[in-house]
Amino acid sequence: MVTESPQPLDIPVDGGELRALRWGTGDAVILAAHGITGSAASWNAVAGHLPAGWSLIAFDLRGRGGSAGLPGPFGFDRHSADLNAAARHIGADEYVLTGHSMGAYVALLAATQSPDLYRRLVLVDGGIPLPAPAGLDPDVVMQTTLGPALARLSRTFGSVDDYFDFWRAHPAFKDSWSDDLEFYLRYDLTGDPGAMRSRAQEPAVRADGRDLLVSERKITEALRGLKLPTLLLTAPAGMMGDPPPFLPPELVEEAQRQSPMLETEVVPDTNHYTILFNSRAARTVADRLMA
């Protein structure tokens, strides 16, 4: 299994360098994108279930993690262009492409823009059209949907333990604390004790959240234009740890009708976050990536 610490990579893109983390040295390569306030470190648990012949390269999207200093504009088109540029720079013959949450939308667009780069696409609890609530301010929608994940971006923390305590109170993790989650949280922090903060940049997060709310038509067209075998893995519980799910079943069924290339599977006993951080679920995701 791929158990060693990931190796950092810096990949030239428009405006600077995109940071990535690479687990493993195998010739079969998975490229991965994270969620809207996340980082490459969110893929640590999945990488730990890959055998020696595989590698997983996860990116800190522009405005997050080690790519926090990359300039805007942000948005799905920008991130998907970065992803395809990175794939070409790394130079593997072919990749499996995946993304979680917002990263699933980025991966979908990257795959439809450059299908020659990728062999398969795996979307993890994201990547299908979400109708925008009519008449609501996008910032209000994001505040309601993301909750603590967004609130932390305007806060500072006294220590790593304080940051852990903040996340222990999140309902999605009440029964699912793990070493992989701690790895992700440590990677997310920057600054000195007494004034530590998330490396995710709030302007980038808000710009991408607004883009999601106005991109229903773009995502629908991308699904219809898929040329790659694509699997959508969904969690039965949502961002706050309980049903309803982030992707309602009726929207998943509609997405299947839109794209004959799309298959779907529910990963049981997971929510929007633990589908990556729970060890059993992470093994399922890893198995599907290698299928």
- Mean pLDDT, rounded to whole units? 94
What is the number of domains?
1
Q: What CATH first level would be assigned?
A: Alpha Beta
Percentage of residues in DSSP E strands: 15-25%
Q: What is the count of β-strands? A: 10
The name of the CATH superfamily reads: Alpha/Beta hydrolase fold, catalytic domain
Radius of gyration of CA atoms, rounded to a whole number: 17 Å
Following the backbone from N to C, one meets helices and strands in this order, namely EEEHEHEHEHHHHEEHHEHEHH
CATH topology: Rossmann fold
Number of helices: 12
Largest sheet properties: 8 strands, mixed
Q: Uncertain segments of ≥5 residues (pLDDT<50)? A: none
* Straight-line N-to-C gap: 16 Å
> Pairing-aware structural class of the strands and helices?
alpha/beta
Helix content: 25-40%
Q: Which CATH architecture?
A: 3-Layer(aba) Sandwich
Strand order in the largest sheet: 1-2-4-3-5-6-9-10
Tell the overall outline. Answer: globular
Structure, explained:
- The strands form two sheets. The chain has an eight-stranded mixed sheet, with helices on both faces. It has a two-stranded antiparallel ribbon with strand order 7-8.
- It starts with 6 loop residues before the first strand and ends with a helix.
- The protein is built from twelve helices and ten strands.
- With 291 residues, the chain is an alpha/beta fold.
- The radius of gyration is 17 Å and the shape is globular.
- Helix 2 (76-90) crosses helix 3.
- The protein is 38% helix and 19% strand.
- It has a single domain, classed as Rossmann fold (3-Layer(aba) Sandwich), CATH 3.40.50.1820.
